[in-house]
């Protein structure tokens, strides 16, 4: 009986020793990686910009002479017709100048007529008559200028359109050329957008533009790039682009908020990732995709389309919003937990 107990005890000790020798596998290290999020525009092959509906033609109307405004007949938003009176200046001074110029012209004409008669009788020389004829021509020109100056005291619309701004009021003294009213033509409309410098070439070579209005969901218009500013705005560092709208109607009103979707060529806008983001397995390019909720990575197969500089173009396999590891990919394992540089 004692022999059996000893044998069982020795067997138990052997099993216990074997169990102690099987250690737990070492935990995977928490590696630090860099990630980038896939942009929706890069996946869809389009770029979207916010914009505003503007008139193709907008005039800054001003008086051609200085003076005091005595009347303003329009307000912002008023529809005007070509030739319609918008504002008037006090015309007393220019009217007096016109009357003076007309009196000088009449006097010069009378003088010229008298000297023609004298010349016909050979009482004066031809040189004296030529001087009087020249004086008459000068007086006629001065009278015409004075008459035009008097007409410049009335500001009229140069086109059919809508008043978009009023920059002077009745009683204000303005100088020649100072803007009083801005009128936007109602014949053509366009969308003005601000393009970041990184997207300028993509917009320049875009295959087409689709325009939508925030206030009219479900409707869209086609557009074309009419103008792209050659220089960046000093404050925003963006380039102004104007998209002409094809077939706009009364529903598209000036000042409305719009969205412009530029369809860019696939060769130029295919998604690009740094070469360090790719991990080859079984001759198949892969990338590590981060799950932000669990901070773990999983392998994702992708289809590539050539190298551009230090980047690789990706044709398919990724979706907008995914977080892709761009540095440290070769050191990761499936399901491994990672840490971002900003995390301690």
Description of the structure:
This protein is an alpha+beta fold. Among the domains are: about 30-45 and about 270-340, conserved putative lor/sdh protein from methanococcus maripaludis s2 fold (Beta Barrel); about 45-55 and about 185-265, Elongation Factor Tu (Ef-tu), domain 3 (Beta Barrel), CATH 2.40.30.170; about 90-155, Helix Hairpins (Orthogonal Bundle), CATH 1.10.287. It is built from six helices and 24 strands. The protein has helices at about 1-20, 40-45, 90-120, 125-150, 200-205, 265-270; strands at about 30, 35, 45-55, 60, 65-70, 80, 85-90, 155, 160-165, 175, 180-185, 190-195, 210-215, 215-230, 240-245, 255-265, 270-275, 280, 285-290, 295-300, 305-310, 310-315, 325, 340. It has a six-stranded antiparallel β-barrel. Strands 2, 18, 19, 20 and 23 form a five-stranded antiparallel β-sheet that branches. Helix 3 runs antiparallel to helix 4. About 20% of the residues are buried. Mean pLDDT is about 85; it is low at about 1-10.
